[in-house]
Amino acid sequence: MAARVLAALLATALALALAAGPAPARASNDEGDALYALRQRLSDPNGVLQSWDPTLVNPCTWFHVTCDQASRVVRLDLGNSNVSGSIGPELGRLVNLKYLELYRNNLDGEIPKELGNLKNLISLDLYANKLTGGIPKSLSKLDSLRFMRLNNNKLTGSIPREFAKLSNLKVIDLSNNDLCGTIPVDGPFSTFPLRSFENNSRLNGPELQGLVPYDFGC
Amino acid sequence: MGIKQSCSFTPCVLADLSLLFCILLAPVCLATSPAALLQVKSGLTDPEGVLSGWSLEADVCSWHGITCLPGEAGIVTGLNLSGYGLSGMIPPAISGLISIESIDLSSNSLTGPIPPELGVLENLRTLLLFSNSLTGTIPPELGLLKNLKVLRIGDNRLHGEIPPHLGNCSELETLGLAYCQLNGTIPAELGSLKQLQKLALDNNTLTGGIPEQLAGCVSLRFLSLADNMLQGNIPSFIGSFSDLQSLNLANNQFSGEIPAEIGSLSSLTYLNLLGNSLTGAIPAELNRLGQLQVLDLSMNNISGKVSISAAQLKNLKYLVLSGNLLDGAIPEDLCADDSSSLLENLFLAGNNLEGGIEALLSCGALQSIDVSNNSFTGVIPPGIDRLPGLVNLALHNNSFTGALQPQIGNLSNLEILSLFHNGLTGGIPQEIGRLQKLKLLFLYENQMSGTIPDELTNCTSLEEVDFFGNHFHGPIPERIGNLKNLAVLQLRQNDLSGPIPASLGECRSLQALALADNRLTGALPETFRQLAELSVVTLYNNSLEGPLPESLFQLKNLTVINFSHNRFAGSLVPLLGSTSLTVLALTDNSFSGVIPAVVARSRNMVRLQLGGNRLTGAIPAELGNLTRLSMLDLSLNNLSGDIPAELSNCVELTHLKLDGNNLTGTVPACLGSLRSLGELDLSWNALTGGIPPELGNCSGLLKLSLSDNHLTGSIPPEIGRLTSLNVLNLNKNSLTGAIPPALQQCNKLYELRLSENSLEGPIPPELGQLSELQVILDLSRNRLSGEIPASLGSLVKLERLNLSSNRLDGQIPSSLLQLTSLHGLNLSDNLLSGAVPAGLSSFPAAAFVGNELCGAPLLPCGPRSPARRLSGTEVVVIVAGIALVSAVVCVALLYTMLRVWSNWRAVSVSNSDGEESAHGGHGGGGGKWGDGKYWKVGSPVSWSAEQKHSSGSETASVLLHDKSTEAARAGKR
């Protein structure tokens, strides 16, 4: 009996050693891995992520994912898909992404600061979710961003002043959140209509530079 | 036999039961031993004939397997029929052997229950029935066997609970009930077994905790409760079993900390607590177990440091702590540096350990090291060759850096070298060629470089080589064919160049070959035909070329072929010898000829991707036999003929891409039965007929593209049932009739293209419901009439709107000013009239020409135009007014904000709303705070001049983008 147990142990130990055999997910399919990490975070009652098979060479045949000619992920369309869970930092690895469409879901948690790495992002549509926390100021690194719609969430904190650097920003919608402080007035903010900021009960109107700190009342 | 029934009306104690037995079974009791044995024989099937000598003609004591009492003829004391392949049931007649002391029927194929009648054999000392197929429960009558010392009935299919009556077998020394299906708890009564030395209850489904009464088993030497569902704490009384040598509690649900009292078990040689939920630190007291040879605490939640010292545990051979929460470094004194260490196997994988592994070099007897999945850093120590016995070295999934040193070549016993997913740099030392026993070499996901040394081909035991994701360059070693045992060769994603060596065909054991993502050139060698075991071959993203050797058809075991993105040419036939293909991906090569119908012999095909080749002929109807097909991509070839209706049998299809061919005929209505379809692309063909309304049944469809065909008829309103649709492209057909208002139900559309058809009637206002439209709404080049519906102003995400070359009339609705995301607009060549709304003046004139429009960016409107210019006096008055109002509002604002911050917004938002409606609801432009807004409306030019530049370039780049895509497409064709 003892010999049998010892043999069993040996088998266990060797199995551990040979765990190398079935190689884990390949890091080089980084965009696919990042998306798959998102899939694992999300609860997906409608099965919209069912086609996301991590064993494929790239995610370009996954539904709701669009690639360019060079097989780089440029669109993620999960708007109105009844998914819940948090967004997670992995999406920051989709460095070729132009359209991030996650609107009208039940996403919660914070907007990961890693989204600031999406240098090619044109459209960031996270509206109508349950996102909390602050708007990461890293989003001010999104030089290509034209559309930022974060409205109808539960975002708090102030509007990062750094957003005034977003020279391509054409549309911003931060309405219906719980933001505080004041609204920037520089850069693209000189053209945004007030309704982009309405229904933030603690947001105190346009910044009065030099008179009041921008995050007054936060 | 109704023993319990008897007891129910006969006042009886267990001791009386044997008497009762004899009364009930009088004929058996009276029978002689030979007669009883012959009854036993008659119940058994005896394939080896070992019982053939059992007959009354011979002395019973001479029968095979029978032992008699010495000197006393005919008194049978032993029956040993172990391992003779006997089957059948154990006959109750066996209870007639009243003198018997030992029964061994182990390792046969006996079935049926254990006869309760065995309980009468009061002389029985040994009962071995293990390793049979016995069923039923353990008869409580076994508890009557007062003289029983050894009871081993495990490895059967016994179920039910362990009878507490066994606690009455007070002489019991060995109780083996392992490998059955016993459930319930461990009976506390077993604690009465003071003589019990071995207790094996492992591999059952026992529940509950270890009963405290078990502390009474003071003689225990061997205790195995592994592989059950036991829970609770490990009781500290285990430390009082002073003779205990082996303790195995593995794979249960024990929780809490490891009791320090275990450190008192001075005879313990084997301690296995693997696979529980134990927490806390490793008790330092374990270091007192001087006899311990095996210590396995793996797969728990144990935290703290590796506080085990093999220097104290001088007999330790196995130390297994994998899969815990241990942190810190490997202790410096893990092994005393006096070459006295016996530690052979060290498994620390899957913890949070850090630092280097130099301390291991003192453990001179090590054969296996697994420290994978930790956070170790530093270099792989060159002194690793101080461990000459090393067989397995697994350092993967850590952060080791630096180069692999030549000393690795001194580890002549090495069989497994797994270094993947670290930060190793440098080349592979040529000394690796000295590792004649090496079977597995995993270097993938490092930053290694240089060429693959030819010496590697001296490692003739190699079975698996994985260098994926490094920077190796140069050729694949010419003599790779020396590796006759190679089953897996994974070199994907390096910078390898040159041809695939012909000698690779000598690797006859090769099952998986991955050379994808390199810069390999040349043709596939003829010798590939010899790779009869080859199952998975992936060569995509190289520059391999030429026709495939016809002899590849001999490879019958292929399941996955991915040759995409190369320059292979010629026929597909050589790849179709196997009928087991699940993936055939040949996208973007130059294959020509027809798609052979034999491709459909692989009935388990999941992905068939032949897009971007030069294939001709018809789509074989046999593809309809591929009922597991998920992806069918035949796009961008020169295929002709009809779309076979049989494709509708491929019910699991998710992607059907036939675009960019010369397909004719109609769109088969039966495609509507493909309920899993997410993408249907039939564009760029010569299809005729109407769009079948049945497509509306493909309810999961996300992309539907039928553009560039000759489709006629109207757009079926059933398309509106595709409520998941993201992209609808019906451009460039000959569609007529009205745009169905039902399209409004496709409310996930982000791209809608209906241009270059003959659609007529008005633009349905319902399109304004498509609030997620984003990429484009293109209705251009049709015969649409009527006014532009004001509802289109709701498409706030829309980036491009093209309504050009229609017959639209009326004015441009001011609601279009709400299209704040718009950066491409084309309303040209319609019948529009009136003034261009000021907010749209930033778009280039080309967006509006070919109408009767006026105003910026077109020529100014005439005197009777509604949008007249203001006179100089009016301007002065307005500017003065604005200045005054501005000053007032500024002061008011300042005052308000500094005093009543929280009340500010209600006031000012309602103000601004009022202004916006007064000025046509402009939202995207200069509308700002109070006075700023007035200023903007009075001076539209200064605003648009600033915006014009960006909008113009935007439109241009969008246009350019389209052109290049189309050019690329055309070129491909």
TrEMBL record, chain A:
Domain (Leucine-rich repeat-containing N-terminal plant-type): residue spans on this chain: 28-68
Domain Disease resistance R13L4/SHOC-2-like LRR positions: 69-176
Record flagged with keyword Transmembrane helix: no
InterPro entries noted in UniProt: LRR_dom_sf, LRR_N_plant-typ, LRR_R13L4/SHOC2-like
Classification via Pfam families: LRR_14, LRRNT_2
Keywords, alphabetical: Leucine-rich repeat, Repeat, Signal
Signal sequence, start to end: 1-27
Protein name as catalogued: Leucine-rich repeat-containing N-terminal plant-type domain-containing protein
Organism of this sequence: Miscanthus lutarioriparius
Lineage: Eukaryota, Viridiplantae, Streptophyta, Embryophyta, Tracheophyta
From TrEMBL, chain B:
Positions with biased composition (Gly residues): 920-929
Leucine-rich repeat-containing N-terminal plant-type domain span: 35-68
Domain of life: Eukaryota
Signal peptide: 1-31
GO cellular component: membrane
Subcellular location field: Membrane
Protein's membrane topology: Single-pass membrane protein
Annotated region described as Disordered, given as residue ranges: 911-933, 945-973
Residue spans crossing the bilayer: 875-895
UniProt-listed InterPro entries: Leu-rich_rpt, Leu-rich_rpt_typical-subtyp, LRR_dom_sf, LRR_N_plant-typ, StomDev_PlantInt_Reg
Record key words, sorted: Leucine-rich repeat, Membrane, Repeat, Signal, Transmembrane, Transmembrane helix
Name the UniProt record assigns to this protein: Leucine-rich repeat-containing N-terminal plant-type domain-containing protein
Lineage: Eukaryota, Viridiplantae, Streptophyta, Embryophyta, Tracheophyta
